[in-house]
Structures are given as C-alpha cells and as structure tokens.
Amino acid sequence: MTIAVDFDGTIVEHRYPEIGKELPFATATLKKLTDDGHRLILWSVREGDLLQEAVDWCRERGVRFHAVNGFFDEDAVDAAENAKRNPHYSRKLKVDCFIDDRNVGGLPDWGSIYQIISRRITFEQLLQEEAHDMEPEPKKRPWWKF
Length: 146
Ligand SMILES: [Mg+2]
What we know:
Blueprint: E1 2-5, H1 26-35, E2 39-42, H2 48-60, E3 67-68, H3 79-85, E4 97-99, H4 110-118, H5 123-134
Parallel strand pairs: 1-2, 1-4, 2-3
Magnesium ion (MG) binds at residues 6, 8-10, 100-102.
C-alpha cells in the first residue's frame, strides 16, 4: 500500500512549530510498515526548514519516506502549471490510506494502526474483535450437572 502519514499530532505530539514527543510506537510501526513493503509519504503542513526538521527527525529514527508532501515528480512543479498541462491533474494524493490525527473519530493507537493496515481490516472490524475478546467466557456447567 501507499500510505500518507501526517507528522504533528500523528507521529509526534502536537507542539508545532516545535517537535513534540514521539507518540508511543509511531516510528517503530512506520519502520515495520516499510519493512513489510509499504510506501510511506510524509504529508504535513510543514514547509521549508520546519519540514526538513521533521524529515530529519524521522530519518534519525530510521523512518524513511518515499516522498514528502507529494507523490509524483510533477508535484514539484507549480500546481497551476500542472492544471494547464493536464486537465485531469488533481492535488489529491493517490494513496491507499492516510494516517492523520484529524481522522474522523481521531487517531487510533499505533498498534491498532499496524493491525488495520497489515491485516487490511477496518477500524470498526478491529474494535469488534477487541470487544469480542473482552466478552466473558460463557460459564461452564460443573461436570456433575451434565
Ligand atoms: Mg496533525
């Protein structure tokens, strides 16, 4: 899969323009996703030096991105120029999913994110599984009542 990942509030606690503390297991999960063959795109409102700081912060922790704030080479060119050259050009990222703290319903923990992506299930399916796992075992009848 190709996965767009936000930085502030998603990989690290939201302290923009500072870099907050890493959210538990964020970088470990991103590295595992890359090892599993997924392509990561950093998708952030950061620009310039602040963006580079985020990229460097991730690289220092072993997280490498396929692309940063874009996908194809043409994203490096001005969007208006792209629109002229290709009437079907869209700024929308062509990715399979987004990991972002602004998801409807909020950001799952990184363990859940890994389960959802690697098993290709929905967040709802994961929650149902977890709810099922928490149901008490049906009471067993004592052997003398059989
Ligand atoms: Mg964010």
